[in-house]
Amino acid sequence: MCRARMIALAFGAYALWPVAALAQGQAAGPQVPREGGTPLPAAPSVLAIGQSVVMGGVPAGQATAEILGVSLGDAIARGLRQNLGVVLGEQAVRSASGVRWQALSAMLPTAGLRVSQTREEINLEEFGFPLPPGQSPIVGPFNVAAVRLSAAAPVFDYAAIERAKAGARVAGAASHSFRDTRDLVAFVTANLYLQAVAGASRIEAARTQLATAQALYDHAVTQNKAGLVPGIEVLRAQVQLQSQQQRLIFYTNEFAKQKLALQRAVGIPLAQAIELTDRLPYSALEQVSLETALAQAYESREDLQAAQAMVRAAEASRQAAVGEGLPSVIVNGDVGRSSNAWDTLKGTFALSAQVRVPIFQGGRVHGRVVQADAEVKQQQAQVADLRARIEYEVRAALLDLHAADDRVRVARSAADLAGQQLTQAQDRFTAGVTSNLEVVQAQETVATATDNYLSALYAHNLAKISLARAIGLAEERGRQLLRSGE
Fold first, then answer.
1. Angle at the Cα of 249 (from 247 to 250), degrees rounded to 5?
2. What is the mean pLDDT of the chain?
3. Burial of residue 190, with CB atoms counted within 10 A of its CB: 0-12 exposed, 13-18 middle, 19 or more buried
4. Is 50 left (phi over 0), alpha (psi -120 to 50) or beta?
């Protein structure tokens, strides 16, 4: 049972991953300097979860020269087949099934066939036979040929019965953990896809801003040649143009790495060029009450069901420890044919029933009962903690979702206002009312507002899949939550 428990707990160690660590543990990307020393807001990077198995994948197929279109649904489907966490999880379930069969074997009959040919000598004095003086006690050598079938069947063994129950419950816990891992893989895959989509949107925004900076630079050069503006205006526009070029280079590189992270997690060869076909625009999620979300989470979360199965396995293991101090009944049988030559075999048999009654075992049974009882308490404490963690994750996901929804509306309004400000600044500069310093400042405001809007949009979609993960429906409802309201 100890081996079975270790397998199930080792599998659950990565399957029961805290959502908060995934949603919040993002590494800050490098910062690109902007004019005046103001740093460029860092783009979201891949999840900072180290070498977690869910970030790895088993590549399938060969890279081709064609560009592979990948939708969110395609990415999740591939992840659920090729992600390393899923692949290892399948084998962990098989391993737990093997442990279950080992525990069950103690309750089932065993049988074996033996075919033997023996040549031997016997010392009669060894067995206490009296012999006349001078007679040799050695008999033989002689041959013994035998074909025998032996079997043993436990009639009643309470400890074996409870160990078999514990093995079955550990196998059930491994199955629940595997399904929880699939939910986790769906969540991680969707998050990586969202990050890559946000990266593509940042590239598009950076190209637009670069085109605007190029147009303003060209206009400043034209006016300078006409003697309408001093040379400082051209230099200022050129600095802004190069700043936008840096932004585009940075976001292009980040997007390439984000696609690599996605390909690795879903098992697409890294040499394969891919194109993201889904853009996942903003769509408000219909209101979800806390009570409904919690009830659904307690019913659907596979990690909670796995933990509860481990409690039942620990309880069965404790009963097995108690059963080691109880009587057991075993029936043995042996039937076959034997003789001193193969052509003269004669049939023989033996049948026995055995009752084993433990009387004194030096405290071994008591020690195992105490140890098993402690394991039951530990598993119960983990279930209680997991229920509290699920409530925290649901509450946090709902808070993040409401806050992200507000952020998107505010950031969209700010981006619109920044665009109007830039238009007015360009008109004032063209009319000669002001220098292009005002235009550069307006460009910076537009860039910041655009970054804020894209970050808010990513946070909103991430909050949706975080809620799906928190209520235990990441695999089934992740795509529906992202597209709700379209």
1. 65
2. 82
3. buried
4. left
| Cβ atoms of residues 241 and 206 within 8 Å | no
Cα gap 175→183, rounded to integer Å: 13
- For residues 203 and 335, what is the distance between their CA atoms, to the nearest angstrom? 82
CA 241/CA 218 separation, integer angstroms = 10
- Which residues on adjacent β-strands are paired with residue 447? none
Neighbours of 166 (CB within 10 A): 27
DSSP 8-state assignment for residue 154: E
**Alpha-carbon gap, residue 221 to 234, rounded angstroms:** 6
Identity at 385, one-letter amino acid code: D
Give the strand pairing for 138-156 and 110-123.
Answer: antiparallel
C-alpha closest to that of 230 among 431, 37, 432 = 432
Length of the chain: 486
Q: In this predicted structure, which of 11-15, 59-63, 199-203 has the lowest mean pLDDT?
A: 11-15
Beta strands 68-70; 274-276: pairing state: parallel
> Angle 43-46-47 (CA atoms, 0-180°, nearest 5)?
120
pLDDT of residue 392: 94
Asked, as a colleague might, if the bond just before 141 is cis with ω within 30 of 0, I would say: yes
pLDDT tens digits for range 303-344: 999 999 999 999 999 998 888 888 999 999 999 998 888 888
216 vs 440: CA distance, rounded Å? 9
**Per-residue pLDDT tens for 153-184?**
888 888 888 999 999 999 999 999 998 989 88
Alpha-helical runs (H) found in 301-347: 302-323
What phi and psi values does residue 282 have, to the nearest 5 degrees?
A: -70, 135
* Helix, strand, or coil (residue 147): strand
Fold topology of 2-106+157-325+361-483: Outer membrane efflux proteins (OEP) (1.20.1600)
Exposed/middle/buried for 24, CB within 10 Å: 0-12, 13-18, 19+? middle
**Where is 328: in which H helix or E strand?**
strand 328-339
CA distance 475 to 465: 10
Tokens describing residue 48: 């900072």
For residues 436 and 216, is the Cβ–Cβ distance under 8 A?
yes
**pTM, full prediction:** 0.77
Q: Domain ranges in the chain?
A: 2-106+157-325+361-483
Per 3-state DSSP, the chain is made up of helix, strand and coil in percentages (nearest 5) of: 65, 15, 20
**pLDDT tens-digit map of 348-371:** 889 999 899 888 887 888 888 999
